[in-house]
Amino acid sequence: MKRISVIGMGFVGLVSAACFAHKGFDVLVSTHDPKKVEMIHAGKAPFYEKDLNPILAEVVKKGNLRVIAGRREAILDSDITFIAVGTPSKADGSIDLGFIKSSAKEIGEALKDKDGHLVVVKSTVAPGTTEEIVKPAIEKYSGKEVGSDFGLCMSPEFLREGNAVYDTLNPDRIVIGESDKSAGDALEEFYREFYGEKCPPILRMSLVAAEMVKYTSNALLSTKISFANEIGNICKEFGIDTYEVMRAVGMDHRLSPHFLRAGVGFGGSCFPKDVNALIHKAKEIGYDPTLLKAVMNVNEEQPKRMIKLLERKLPSLKGKKVAVLGLAFKNDTDDIRESRAIPIIRMLLDKNVRVSVYDPLANENMRSIFPDIEYCTGAEESLRNADACLVVTEWEEFKKLDHEFDVMKNKVVIDGRKVISSREGIDYDGLCW
Ligand SMILES: NC(=O)c1ccc[n+]([C@@H]2O[C@H](COP(=O)([O-])OP(=O)(O)OC[C@H]3O[C@@H](n4cnc5c(N)ncnc54)[C@H](O)[C@@H]3O)[C@@H](O)[C@H]2O)c1
Fold first, then answer.
1. How far is it, in rounded angstroms, from Cα 310 to Cα 392?
2. Of 287, 318, 332, 359, which is most buried with the most CB atoms under 10 A?
């Protein structure tokens, strides 16, 4: 069995490492952060992800997953290194490849003393990055040549936060971009061993095509959401329930029912960042991506529409109390990156509203952005004496809310995710239905 090292201990890196170890591979992860080392040794992830902690505890106990401080040691003591570091956005929307570059340098320096290693880029990177940035950096710092001395692949990750363990163990397909045939063969062999009989289809292609698959996938999913939101905004004006419309539309075998739920828009660490990076990359080569720009524009407008709808119901917001239910960018995660709750709370504060919030998991993370708003331990506490309620995240527990609305001063409820059932006694309105 091949020995694996993983660079980057976020959602992708840690979940992949834990799942590889769960299937019996010897996995090394490295971090310079002693707090993270301590947590992982105790079988606890530094972030919330369903089903991850039991697997971590199991693989750490068995010794299949080891956390060490030295990256060089992790690379030298393994056969395959997966790069799963963050690739955030810069202020202009382009991709920040700082972590990718430093990882490539560290791998190159380690490979000076080793041949036959396979390096796999799992992070989402712009087309051309693996060939034009990762490959030359490893070659420069190792003095070795791709193809003859080491192999290089790009294998994008498609997991969903909140279902990351399940998705890692049950992907729809595996994409392998390869520097050369033997690198692709080695990675395919690893995946076949990892998935065994349940191995999904494996698609082999060039490095740049694999990078483009991931961007295209996220761009199409984001486009579906913005499309559903635009149709929802039109439906709202006609008094039509867009959910009824999309249910019928989604049954067409040429389409799919997924990602057609209209609402307050998409957030998270991937969709906005990847669509913006693709827009930026397209402009760099002289193409103006009008459709992708519109996808982002619709997404930016949805939170504003929510505030406008609120102002139609409460014309003077100054001094009012508004409860915001849901802070995470989606349910089943504590991740608030690019959450639609952020622009919504910011707009409310700009209008001198008293904001009281509740999220089952993400209160603490939001505190770093808005330290001075009221954080509540339950929906009812947040709703007490509120003049209005905005529902921003589709948490399962919000679907059961009922008598909790009774404690509101003014029972105006605007639902951005279609999770609340309209009931007598509340002034319920959907954002785009
Ligand atoms: N989160 C998702 O749902 C998801 C899904 C598919 C793909 N991706 C992509 O995978 C990549 C990682 O995403 P994530 O959500 O896991 O990110 P994350 O921000 O949760 O984690 C990134 C990790 O990399 C670490 N890191 C940064 N630089 C490092 C370095 N030089 N050496 C070692 N560690 C370093 C950070 O400390 C952090 O732990 C990104 O490119 C992202 O777009 C993410």
1. 13
2. 359
